[in-house]
């Protein structure tokens, strides 16, 4: 069969987006797309929902399914709002229905969307993470990993391990890569793997680099940046409210509000369309592939936007 795909990105976290009916071969489809396009982080599927404006499913580049994707949700939010003529709406995801809203375009005309990131849980059982029979792991070194780095485990609801690190751990990512690969292979701590982010304070916010489960190092991971903003507020690195979060793919705003014992989190950033594609999908792998591709003009604006953040990111991304 033949269908249309958009190639989209949020903070240069790049996905193919498919609007369609429920299928049972997303894993194979994503693996095929990933083999054709080394740049893509996976597939976003937009589906009808009985309770919300649409439903989103997220397939990582290795074919595994993620419960949430913050950068992808901004792109899906834009697609659904433009398709249905809405300024805001609700998108159903694997574990929660989330509020999404069109925001003012950035000065150059970049489409911006805000998405709710929820639910938040520090219970290790919710990641899952198993360590010494503990029920939470907040702002403490994991002694077998490093005495120098304070780690927090949090599900939003996909699983994140967040370390606060000095700048040299960003310029040389060997430590992060070693442990992220270990925690995403067979290991006794994270039975389903985990997204691993390293966070460093910068003048007007934080810088975050993420090694994603099912993907590897990415330009940005929206849920990770939001979880990192939350951890930075808890650690006193940033005040509650809007946190500027720089990443190798640009910058987003994560707002962190404390309400009693719980937190409300929102992620605001670009939702950019790179190109449109016609794709032929057949069971016979050799017959599947792109039929045509049409570049769109939005990326030039985004590149200008990144230029403005490069003075911060350059010190960490070599
Ligand atoms: N890139 C995504 C998250 C993908 C998460 C995925 N790697 C997993 O939890 O398995 C984001 O922007 O939030």
UniProtKB/TrEMBL annotation:
- Claim: Nucleotide-binding is one of the keywords in the record: no
Record-marked site positions (Could be important to modulate the pK values of the two catalytic cysteine residues): 160, 212
Q: Which compartments is it annotated to reside in?
A: Cytoplasm
| InterPro entries according to UniProt | DAP_epimerase_AS (IPR018510), DAP_epimerase_DapF (IPR001653)
Which enzyme class? isomerase
Pathway annotation from the record: Amino-acid biosynthesis; L-lysine biosynthesis via DAP pathway; DL-2,6-diaminopimelate from LL-2,6-diaminopimelate: step 1/1
Question: EC number(s) of the enzyme?
Answer: 5.1.1.7
- Keyword set for this entry? Amino-acid biosynthesis, Cytoplasm, Isomerase, Lysine biosynthesis
Q: Where is the active site?
A: 69 (proton donor), 69, 221 (proton acceptor)
Reaction(s) catalysed by this chain's protein: (2S,6S)-2,6-diaminopimelate = meso-2,6-diaminopimelate
Which one Pfam family would you cite for this protein? Answer: DAP_epimerase
Function (record text):
Catalyzes the stereoinversion of LL-2,6-diaminopimelate (L,L-DAP) to meso-diaminopimelate (meso-DAP), a precursor of L-lysine and an essential component of the bacterial peptidoglycan.
Subunit-level organization: Homodimer.
- Name the protein family: Belongs to the diaminopimelate epimerase family.
- Put simply, this protein is called Diaminopimelate epimerase
Q: What is the lineage of its organism?
A: Bacteria, Bacillati, Bacillota, Bacilli, Bacillales
């Amino acid at each position: 069969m033949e269908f249309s795909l958009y190639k989209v990105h949020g903070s240069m976290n790049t996905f193919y987006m498919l609007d369609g009916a429920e299928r049972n071969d997303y894993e194979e489809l994503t693996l095929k797309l990933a083999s054709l396009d080394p740049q893509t982080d996976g597939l976003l599927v937009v589906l009808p929902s009985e309770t919300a404006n649409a439903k989103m499913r997220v397939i990582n580049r290795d074919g595994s399914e993620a419960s949430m994707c913050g950068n992808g949700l901004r792109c899906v939010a834009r697609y659904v709002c433009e398709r249905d003529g809405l300024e805001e709406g609700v998108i159903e995801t694997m574990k929660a229905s989330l509020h999404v809203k069109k925001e003012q375009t950035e000065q150059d005309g970049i489409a911006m969307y805000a998405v709710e990131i929820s639910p938040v849980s520090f219970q290790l059982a919710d990641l899952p993470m198993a360590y010494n029979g503990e029920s939470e792991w907040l702002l403490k070194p994991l002694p077998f990993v490093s005495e120098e780095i304070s780690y927090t485990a949090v599900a939003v609801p996909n699983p994140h391990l967040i370390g606060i690190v000095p700048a040299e751990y960003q310029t040389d990512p060997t430590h992060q890569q070693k442990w992220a690969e270990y925690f995403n292979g067979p290991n006794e701590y994270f039975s389903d793997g985990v997204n691993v982010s390293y966070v460093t304070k910068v003048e007007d916010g934080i810088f975050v680099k993420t090694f994603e489960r099912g993907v590897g190092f990415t330009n940005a991971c929206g849920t990770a940046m939001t979880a990192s903003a939350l951890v930075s507020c808890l650690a006193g690195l940033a005040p509650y409210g809007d946190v500027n979060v720089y990443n190798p793919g640009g910058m987003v705003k994560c707002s962190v509000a404390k309400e009693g014992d719980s937190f409300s989190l929102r992620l605001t950033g670009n939702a950019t369309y790179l190109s449109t594609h016609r794709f032929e999908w057949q069971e016979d792998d050799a017959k599947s592939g792109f039929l045509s591709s049409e570049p769109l003009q939005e990326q030039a604006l985004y590149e200008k936007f990144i230029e403005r953040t490069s003075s911060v990111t350059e010190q960490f991304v070599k």
